[in-house]
Amino acid sequence: MTISMKRKKTPASSAPPKGLAIDSFCAWDGDTLVLNILGTPNAKQDAIGNPKGHQLCISVTEAPVRGRATDHMVRFLAEEFGVTSAEIKVVFGRYNVNKQMRIKSPKKLPAVVERQLSQTHGV
Question: Pfam families attached here (predicted)?
Fold first, then answer.
């Protein structure tokens, strides 16, 4: 006799991703910068765009296959923030366009991030 164990599928919206809840697309958590990202794979060029709601639009040229676009985004952001790829942690969204990343002690800040932090945190 074989017993089939089926896992109950839960809708994606019922389980919110675990991450820091922030009021804008970026915030400091100690010396770590937390970014909420709306990713765009298959773009013509790697670029940091404008905020859209509580997310920062970031485009990458890599295709969204097996997390390669996210890996490429981490390498791109490492260069933009003056850190190594190992200093960027993907909190959630490795296989999704909605992501949260934590950047440990960034050495430089892109203009859009610097503007937002100065408005919200007086940095």
Answer: DUF167 (PF02594)
